[in-house]
Amino acid sequence: MSGGYPQYPTGYGYGAAYAASSAPFSAPPGEKPLKDKHHAHGGSYTHAECYASPFAALLPSVFPPGTDPNVVACFQLADQDGSAFIDDNELQRALSSYNQSFSLRTVHLLMYLFTNSNTRKIGPKEFTAVFYSLQNWRAIFEKFDRDMSGKIDANELREALLSLGFAVSPVVLDMLVSKFDKTGGKNKAIEYDNFIECCLTVKGLTEKFKEKDTMYSGSATFTYEAFMLTVLPFLIA
């Protein structure tokens, strides 16, 4: 699988600005992100990316030191059976209690990217990471929603993605807007929850590609199975 992308700003692709893309996924207060061999190339994975297989069981976890008591209370309210895990529906209700609705698809994508598994359950550690990342996403959305319309249009989306280190081509940008516009492309704009889903998809697929493209050449080789396992979680979240 291949594709050329000269380094930003002369072309399109993750290029030199890629390192900025980890900002919305910073570790919560009091916790350091994990590092592995991929970090030799300047990337930084959060603790959520420690699971090797999308089919691995989610391990029990605890709240990181310094977690806001309101975050703890929110999780405990959602965890009605006291299992130390909450499922996708419980996470959706917990997040929606903060005056913002999230589709189950967006919730599933958040859970997948913060556990690297399809278990659709998260513990205190992962919930905290999701909570703090959403605060960062809200700040990014409001920064580029300059007319305060509650929507991001194509130009604003392009600038938002550039700020995260992703320089996508005009063709890809048009596809993203059409895909994540709730009106099916009529408004040519994306609302907050779909903006998160859009950025998570671009980020997730770029990181999967980057794992194979260790030389930043714009080319990567995938087996058929690896390609399917890379793409399908983003299509069927």
From TrEMBL:
This is Probable calcium-binding protein CML50. SMART domains: EFh (SM00054). GO terms for molecular function: calcium ion binding. It holds the Pfam family EF-hand_5. The keyword Calcium applies. Keywords: Calcium. Residues 66-101, 132-167 form the EF-hand domain.
